[in-house]
């Protein structure tokens, strides 16, 4: 018995360097990934005032705190749909799910992508029952406004649609985060986004809805050289889109972090 005990002790001592080396290797890999993530965060950060908004998300906060399953539906147009058909990670909802899972360990989080290209706000509201309410999410991230501006939809009608859509979601205890338009200098100088942006900000204020200021965040990235949206070679567009989706997902995750405090 004493000899067997001594053998076990010797075996345990011999294994410790291997175990320690393995743990050290894991630690180095984790540190490298963390450093890379931090660098990525720094590269596409945004001013605090563009992330923090007054309205909160108490229902989502409660689920996260209680470690209950969380479902989020992202509904919008082309920039929500992304290139998910080619690669699951080439759209912001898929990247958002991955980011939130990292930030809230121990919580089952699902982000459902319901993006359909070139739809107006009204066309999105028309599919709320099927594509949002039927999913029974705690939060709907509603990206809209671009197609309405391009088509010149009456601003009063756009306002009424936003209010009706928010009301329809809240009637089913679904919290809402609005996401305004993308910023690209040339289209922004041609298309009259200003009235639609102002409308979204006004409706968000009146209805106390969290507004993710994508337009201003992307303008900040453009003016500070984070991304070159204007002179992109055709072969580089896919990589740029993937990088922008990733950064948008991380900034929306920042917004969620803030809104559930």
In short:
By secondary structure, this protein is α/β, with parallel strands linked by helices. The protein has helices spanning 2-43, 48-51, 58-65, 78-81, 92-103, 121-126, 128-131, 146-151, 155-170, 185-190, 193-207, 214-223, 237-259; strands at residues 70-76, 109-115, 139-143, 175-179, 210-212.
DSSP strand tally:
5
**Low-confidence runs:** 1-42
Distance between the termini: 58 Å
The main sheet orders its strands as 2-1-3-4-5
**Contiguous helical run count:** 13
The assigned structural class equals alpha/beta
Range of strand content = 5-15%
Describe the oligomeric state of these chains in a short phrase.
Answer: single chain
How many whole angstroms does the radius of gyration measure? 23 Å
The major pleated sheet works out as:
5 strands, parallel
Query: Could you report the average pLDDT, rounded to the nearest whole number?
Result: 83
The geometry reads as globular
Helix content: 55-70%
Would you list the SSEs in sequence order as H and E?
HHHEHHEHHEHHEHHEHH
């Amino acid at each position: 018995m004493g000899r067997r005990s001594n053998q076990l002790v010797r075996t345990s001592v011999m294994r410790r360097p291997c175990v320690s080396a393995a743990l050290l290797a894991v630690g180095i890999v984790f540190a490298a990934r963390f450093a890379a993530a931090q660098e990525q965060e720094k590269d596409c950060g945004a001013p605090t005032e563009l992330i923090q908004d007054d309205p909160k998300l108490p229902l989502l906060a409660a689920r996260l705190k209680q470690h209950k399953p969380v479902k989020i539906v992202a509904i919008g147009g082309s920039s929500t749909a992304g290139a998910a058909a080619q690669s699951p990670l080439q759209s912001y909802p898929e990247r958002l799910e991955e980011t939130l899972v990292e930030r809230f360990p121990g919580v089952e989080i699902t982000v459902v992508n319901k993006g359909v290209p070139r739809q107006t706000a009204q066309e999105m509201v028309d599919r709320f029952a099927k594509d949002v309410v039927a999913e029974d999410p705690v939060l709907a991230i509603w990206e809209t406004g671009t197609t309405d501006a391009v088509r010149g939809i009456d601003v009063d009608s756009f306002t009424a649609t936003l209010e009706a859509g928010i009301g329809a979601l809240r009637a089913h205890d679904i919290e809402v985060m609005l996401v305004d338009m993308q910023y690209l200098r040339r289209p922004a100088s041609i298309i009259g986004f200003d009235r639609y942006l102002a409308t979204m900000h006004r409706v968000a204020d009146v209805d106390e809805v969290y507004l993710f200021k994508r337009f201003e965040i992307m303008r900040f990235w453009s003016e500070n050289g984070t991304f070159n949206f204007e002179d992109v070679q055709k072969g580089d567009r896919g990589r740029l889109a993937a990088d922008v989706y990733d950064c948008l997902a991380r900034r929306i995750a920042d917004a969620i972090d803030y809104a559930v405090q």
